[in-house]
Specification:
This is Dihydroorotate dehydrogenase. The protein has 123 residues and is mostly helical. It has 7 helices and no strands.
C-alpha cells in the first residue's frame, strides 16, 4: 500500500466521521453531573479529641513504633527475638555440627594476630 492510498483512506475517514448529536451530548453531560454530585466530598469528620493526661512515654512509644514501620515490623522483631531465645535455650543438636564446621577447633588467640611467618617460609 502506497502513501497516496493511505492518505486517501485517512481523508475518507476524516470526511465521513459524524459529529455527535446534541441529545447525546446532553445525556453525557447529565450523566457527568450526576456522577460529580455523587462523588462530592462529604463534610470532614471532626478531629478526635485528645484525652487529657496523655503520657510522654506513650507518645514516645508511638513515634518509635511508627519509625520502625508499624505493627507488622514489630511482629517480625518479636518473632526474631523469640526464635533467638529458643535457639539459645534449647541448644539444638544440629547447631553444634554447623558451628564446629565453621569455627573448627584448631584456632587459638595466636592465630588471630597478623604475622609474616607464612610469607617468609622457605621451600
Amino acid at each position: 500500500m502506497t502513501d497516496a492510498e493511505l492518505d486517501s483512506l485517512f481523508e475518507a475517514a476524516r470526511v465521513s466521521a459524524p459529529d455527535p448529536s446534541a441529545a447525546l451530548l446532553a445525556r453525557i453531560m447529565d450523566d457527568a453531573m450526576a456522577q460529580a454530585g455523587a462523588r462530592a466530598v462529604p463534610d470532614p469528620a471532626p478531629a478526635p479529641q485528645r484525652r487529657p493526661g496523655g503520657s510522654v512515654r506513650r507518645r514516645l512509644l508511638a513515634c518509635v513504633l511508627a519509625g520502625l514501620g508499624g505493627w507488622p515490623s514489630m511482629a517480625g522483631l518479636a518473632t526474631a527475638g523469640v526464635v533467638g531465645i529458643w535457639i539459645g535455650y534449647a541448644d539444638p543438636v544440629g547447631l553444634d555440627a554447623v558451628t564446629t564446621a565453621m569455627l573448627g577447633g584448631g584456632y587459638g588467640p595466636a592465630d588471630l594476630a597478623p604475622s609474616l611467618d607464612t610469607f617468609l617460609q622457605e621451600g
